[in-house]
Design brief:
single chain; mainly alpha; Fic-like fold; Fido domain-containing protein
């Protein structure tokens, strides 16, 4: 098979998608993703990430704020695609692109996320904080912005606003917010998810582990200790 040439940005984005999916035990073919990125695919995980890239470019002229509609669109694109994959949970149509109306939990049901009735209010509060940060991030030091994004990610996953796709949607939003702050997005890697990534969620009130994870992935773990 001949080598497939691709831009560095397409390769990086394909790696981000692959790893984010692999964290959830969903497996992709990198070469296929690269082709989809280069052809500007409009649906699926690739379509979601390209939509966010478009918002970054648009923000030069029109504010590309995070909104409920943006978040639900991202989740909808990502989870609609999984309906066509093998060995991946199928979702009811009402759970694609909409906040959940059901309880969700982890660890075999030992921990449940907030009541679905409070999800809209919790998300409105989080979105308000993100938009405020978007308006003010240019006045903050880069490491302060990284800490803010780490906090947003921790809080988003603590709400778990969707029936499925929360991790992939949350990581896609991190990618976008890093680009918004003119920072190079890092890759959430699947190989160390149990050792480094998942432990960051043990205590939603303690953002320090997530900050350390972010700075370590960015190649500057010493910043987290300051």
């Amino acid at each position: 098979m001949p080598e497939i040439t691709a831009s560095e940005s397409a390769i990086n984005l394909a790696e981000f998608i692959c790893e984010s999916d692999w964290i959830e035990n969903i497996y992709d073919e990198p070469r296929v993703l690269i082709k989809q990125i280069e052809s500007r695919k409009k649906d699926g995980h690739v379509g979601a990430m390209l939509m966010l890239e478009g918002l970054v470019r648009l923000s030069c002229n029109v504010p590309g704020y995070v909104t409920k509609e943006v978040i639900c669109k991202i989740q909808g694109l990502i989870t609609a695609e999984q309906q066509r994959k093998r060995n991946v949970p199928r979702l009811l149509p009402k759970h694609v692109g909409q906040y959940r109306d059901c309880w969700v939990g982890v660890k075999g049901g030992k921990y449940f996320f907030p009541d679905p009735e409070v999800v809209p209010a919790l998300m409105n509060s989080l979105i308000d904080r993100i938009v405020w940060w978007q308006d003010n991030s240019r006045f903050q030091a880069w490491d302060q912005n990284v800490r803010a994004i780490a906090r947003f990610h921790l809080d988003f996953e603590a709400v778990h606003p969707f029936a499925d796709g929360n991790g992939r949607t949350g990581r896609a939003l991190v990618y976008y917010l890093m680009r918004w702050a003119m920072l190079k997005p890092f890759i959430f890697t699947s190989m160390d998810k149990s050792e480094l990534y998942y432990p960051c969620f043990i205590d939603p009130a303690n953002v320090r582990p997530m900050e350390e994870y972010f700075f370590t992935k960015m190649g500057c773990p010493e910043i987290a200790r300051t």
